[in-house]
Specification:
Length: 88
């Protein structure tokens, strides 16, 4: 489960942050040592600048309607409404 957690967090970090310090990355990924972080970063192909900060190369693209799970959100909202109605 630890690897899955780290992979999901890492994917979000790559999209959310243009740059991230090693200490910040280690905390977010819940890794126990800087050596473990460097090994993980190398496996993911992360680049570091001269100051040792991880730099993520983000592709800038506009979200499309396909990117928004609207039908899922509608279904989830209706489910919540039904549950609320049943409770009240």
């Amino acid at each position: 489960m630890g690897a899955t957690y780290s992979d999901e967090i890492a994917a979000c970090v790559e999209k959310a942050y243009p740059r991230l310090t090693a200490k910040g990355a280690q905390e977010l990924l819940a890794l126990s040592s800087p050596a473990e972080l460097l090994k993980y970063a190398q496996e993911r192909g992360w680049d570091r600048d001269a100051a040792g900060v991880f730099v993520f190369h983000q592709q800038q693209s506009q979200p499309t309607a396909k990117d928004i799970p609207s039908m899922h959100l509608v279904g989830q909202s209706l489910g919540y409404a039904k549950e609320l109605e049943r409770i009240v």
